[in-house]
Amino acid sequence: MTKKTFFLFLSCLISGMTAFSQDSLSVVKWDLQTCLDYAKKNNIQVNSARLSQQTSQQELILSKGSALPNLYGSATQYVNHYHNEAVYGSGNYGLTSSWTLYQGGYIKSDIQQKNVEVERVNLSILQQVNDLTLQITQYYLNILLDKETIVYQQNVVATSKAQVEQAKKRLDAGSIAQKDVAQLLAQLANDKYTLVTAENAQRQDLISLKQLLQLSATTFDVITPDTIISKKAVDNLLNVQQTALMDRPEVRNGELYVKSAEFGLQKANSGYLPTLTASGFAGSSYQGAGSGYFTQLNNGFNQQVGLSLSIPIFTRKVNQVNRAEAKINIDQAKLSLRDTKTTLTLTIEKAYINVVNSQNQYDAAAEAFKYNQETYRVANEQLKVGIVNMVDFLQQKSLYTQALQQYIQAKYNAALTIEIYEFYKGTPVKL
């Protein structure tokens, strides 16, 4: 290999590795809907529930199969040897079938119960998706809050740096004391610390969101929407509660739980009733020492059909206990449904209170931020010309920073509470 060829190959290899490295480090940026869609397909808990759904489907197939007749084939072949050294073969062949014609309604009730269980598993998947949706929305909004906090805090740090530089010039001119510069430097250090804290919070919230998404990419980020809705008309609490009680999967799941338990009682009651089974057999055999093989099979072909009736007379209290336990299961299911409805109703009421309070807090925080921002602007201008003392200026800056943090927090908290409350009435989450 010539040197020219070698260096050409090396150059291509390095270029390829560089391209791969840049591709692997490319930032994956998703909006909220993309996050939700990805989580629904890839979240481990949701996929585990889907596997449970498949198991329920198989159990339903098995239950339906119990209403059908079975059919077994048998074949036995012998080699016979006697003292006279004669060796010949013999064999038996047959088909056996049985069919449960009546079992006190057990099979029908079992199929109905398995159908209900399949529906319940489907509703459980919806419940998990709903819970996952709210968790992802919360983390997504937390990241947006972190991002806006970082932007504002970067501006604060930049302003603090400018104030320090200006103060140093005034110190050189002898118009302010060294203590004033030291106070501004301390404030700058504190602003930088607040910025680092906000950046760390963003990293932690991104990790939490990636964990929910089961996303391994280390360069994941979210897209900031153009607007965040923090003010919206609040629907009537009673209407939202009634809608949720009719449509939410946890309520429908609880109702089907009661229905499933009722089918369980029907199955238990079937134990008191007789079972009627039909059976049949068809087969033949041959002995090698006799006439021809097919002649023997034809002559020996026989069929048998029968009915078997089993009547429970005394089952050592098995049926009695099964029935009592089935009734207990119904009562437990009804209590669980009542608890689900009560919990959901109170959760929605809490969500309603949260959305009303958060919007009021947002209004108050926005107003406070507006006035503190203007006051801080004036104080900053006064600082430039030296007509405000450092203590008053730093106090005003502290009030501005506090109002800024409260405003951002209130803004995204109001947006989150709106999404949660509307989600309970069936409105999809959308930023």
Task: Identify the notable features of this structure and list them briefly.
alpha+beta; Outer membrane efflux proteins (OEP); two-stranded parallel ribbon; elongated
Q: What topology emerges from the helices and strands here?
A:
Blueprint (H helix, E strand, L loop, with lengths): L2 H22 L3 E3 L1 H11 L1 H22 L4 E12 L5 E16 L3 H68 L4 H36 L6 E3 L14 H11 L1 H21 L5 E13 L5 H8 L1 E9 L7 H68 L4 H35 L7
What does this protein structure show overall?
The protein has 431 residues and is α+β, with helices and mostly antiparallel strands. The protein has a domain at 103-274 and 316-424: Outer membrane efflux proteins (OEP) (Up-down Bundle), CATH 1.20.1600. It has ten helices and six strands. The chain has a four-stranded antiparallel β-sheet, covered by helices on one side. Helix 2 crosses helix 4, helix 3 (44-65) runs antiparallel to helix 4 and helix 7 packs antiparallel against helix 9. The two termini are 60 Å apart.
